[in-house]
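Researcher: Let's do a round of design. I'm pasting the structure tokens now; please hold your answer until I've finished.
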């Protein structure tokens, strides 16, 4: 059975860095499960298993409202 490693991060602004990490994890024979926490915009390259929108909703928020009020810029 392959091991699965969760990669959690802001995929909106650090896609290259996370892609490097994901590639390294795959080189070691493990799978990845991606969880996006980015609030600025949708990731352009990475396709998360759990979206930032789902994370926000689970926490009682709304990602689109965060983006409209620019809360993401303040973080």
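Researcher: That's everything. Go ahead.
Model: Designed sequence:
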């Amino acid at each position: 059975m392959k091991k699965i490693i969760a990669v959690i991060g802001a995929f909106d602004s650090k896609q290259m860095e996370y892609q490097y990490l994901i590639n390294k994890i795959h080189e070691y024979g493990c799978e990845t499960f991606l969880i996006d926490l980015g609030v600025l915009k949708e990731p352009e390259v990475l396709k998360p298993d759990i979206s930032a929108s789902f994370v926000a909703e689970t926490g009682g928020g709304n990602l689109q409202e965060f983006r409209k009020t620019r809360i993401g810029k303040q973080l």
